[in-house]
User: Which sequence fits this backbone?
């Protein structure tokens, strides 16, 4: 019997997927789920045929360039792959894959949850009740901002943004604006009437809610900064389910503190898992621990997507989700 490819999985994955990986490959798992050190990742690159990391593992040029490297494919568990030095992988001729599509709906749900929660003061209201501070209904108690009919501005208009647009437009009657210089117009959702803006500032100036959906690249680092907040309405909210480094977090804190914008709903942070200590104290923000894709169904589907990519690669086929 032919020997199975050796794969190393860097974190715990849903049990069902680990079982399938065990059947298909000679797989090593991380049962304790403790993040692997850089040294451990480098060692794994020399021992396995495939490395299966996730979005919190930094697969940088040192890890990729390890002497006596054996890994030929990196199957990333996540749609985002800014944790991997793609140029280094390309020059080392390592194939890299990601997990698109399967997390689109769940991530769009979290963007809407954040938008609704921060606008209608859901976190704050729950804390208020649970601490016993609620004295009863009254006409001016905890008034938030309306969502239905307000304008949603999307920065980046890929799959997840379009799923947010669909929910917001068809469910909440929100007019949609978007800025995305790269989107292919022939791939756009036909059931949502969204207006494309030529400039990022056009979205920032007009939107009541600005939601970020662009990838994290050198170009998008701190795309949203002090000057962006100055252009937004003082009643506007920022929602981020993409990547933390797209926003200058110190500038966001200042904009919230000085009421340059009204509030923010965040699932991602510049230095995860660290969250700016001032954000933790603010009532006009809703903070989640990077939950975008965190449903059982989606996390299983992401794992199965990695498995299918790696399996195809070792069968000599082109993996469906190849990004390098
Ligand atoms: C991703 O896949 O890139 C998310 O951030 C985690 O699901």
Assistant:
């Amino acid at each position: 019997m032919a020997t199975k490819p050796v794969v190393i999985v860097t974190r715990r994955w849903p049990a069902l997927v680990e079982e399938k990986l065990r059947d298909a490959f000679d797989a090593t798992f991380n049962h304790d789920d403790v993040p692997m050190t850089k040294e451990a990742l480098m060692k794994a690159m020399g021992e396995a045929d495939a490395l299966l990391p996730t979005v919190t593992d930094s697969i940088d040029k040192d890890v990729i360039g390890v002497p006596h490297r054996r890994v030929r494919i990196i199957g990333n568990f996540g749609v985002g792959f800014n944790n991997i030095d793609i140029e280094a992988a390309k020059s080392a001729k390592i194939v890299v894959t990601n997990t698109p599509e399967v997390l689109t709906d769940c991530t769009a749900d979290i963007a809407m949850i954040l938008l609704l929660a921060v606008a209608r003061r859901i976190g704050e209201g729950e804390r208020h009740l649970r601490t016993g501070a609620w004295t009863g209904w009254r006409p001016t108690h905890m008034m938030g901002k309306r969502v239905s009919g307000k304008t949603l501005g999307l920065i980046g208009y890929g799959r997840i943004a379009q799923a947010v647009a669909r929910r917001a437009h068809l469910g909440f009657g929100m007019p949609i604006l978007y800025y995305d210089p790269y989107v292919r117009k022939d791939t756009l959702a036909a059931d949502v009437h969204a207006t494309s803006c030529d400039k990022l500032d056009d979205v920032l100036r007009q939107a009541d809610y600005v939601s970020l959906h662009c990838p994290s690249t050198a170009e998008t680092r701190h795309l949203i900064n002090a000057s962006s907040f100055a252009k937004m309405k003082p009643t506007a909210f920022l929602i981020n389910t993409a990547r933390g480094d797209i926003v200058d977090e110190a500038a966001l804190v200042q904009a919230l503190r000085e009421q340059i914008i009204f509030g923010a709903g965040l699932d991602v942070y510049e230095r995860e898992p660290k969250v700016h200590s001032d954000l933790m104290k603010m009532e006009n923000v809703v903070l989640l621990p990077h939950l975008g894709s965190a449903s059982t169904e989606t996390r299983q589907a992401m794992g199965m997507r990695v498995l299918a990519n790696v399996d195809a690669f070792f069968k000599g086929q082109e993996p469906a989700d190849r990004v390098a």
Q: What stands out?
A: The pocket of (2R)-2,3-dihydroxypropanoic acid is lined by residues 55, 78-80, 103, 292-293 (CB under 6 Å). The mean pLDDT is 97.
